[in-house]
Amino acid sequence: MRLDKYLKVSRIIKRRTVAKEISDKGRIKVNGKVAKSSTDVTIGSELVISFGNKILTVKVTSLKETVKKDEATDLYEIISEEFKENLN
């Protein structure tokens, strides 16, 4: 499954266009490599996503084309969630 679609279906990122923008800016790594929006995601892949002030690391546990809102968190397991400190 494409990275941008997985992020949207799993609701890690709400909209696919936003997922595409973030990944094409090099802010997402899949298994340690910078990923584009078209990168294939498989079960067991580790995603590191850099949001504005947060770095989220998740492991892909399931792939589905569509899921209900309450089942979305079953598609991944959070490994770590780090918050960056203000550098002012």
Q: How does this model look, in words?
A:
The structure is a single chain. The mean pLDDT is 90. This protein has one domain: Structural Genomics Hypothetical 15.5 Kd Protein In mrcA-pckA Intergenic Region, Chain A, CATH 3.10.290. The protein has 2 helices and 5 strands, in the order H-H-E-E-E-E-E. A hairpin with a 3-residue loop joins strand 3 and strand 4. It has a 5-stranded antiparallel sheet with strand order 2-1-3-4-5.
User: Which CATH architecture is right?
Assistant: Roll
Output the radius of gyration.
Answer: 12 Å
Oligomer: single chain
SS elements, strand count: 5
* Protein structure class: alpha+beta
Keywords: Protein biosynthesis, RNA-binding, rRNA-binding, tRNA-binding
Domain RNA-binding S4: 1-64
Organism: Liquorilactobacillus cacaonum DSM 21116
Pfam families: S4 (PF01479)
What's the gist of this structure?
By secondary structure, this protein is an alpha+beta fold. The chain contains 2 helices and 5 strands; from the N terminus they run H-H-E-E-E-E-E. The protein has helices spanning 3-9, 16-24, and strands at 28-30, 33-34, 46-50, 54-60, 76-83.
Observed structural traits:
alpha+beta, Structural Genomics Hypothetical 15.5 Kd Protein In mrcA-pckA Intergenic Region, Chain A, five-stranded antiparallel β-sheet, 5 strands, 28% strand, globular, RqcP, tRNA-binding, tRNA binding
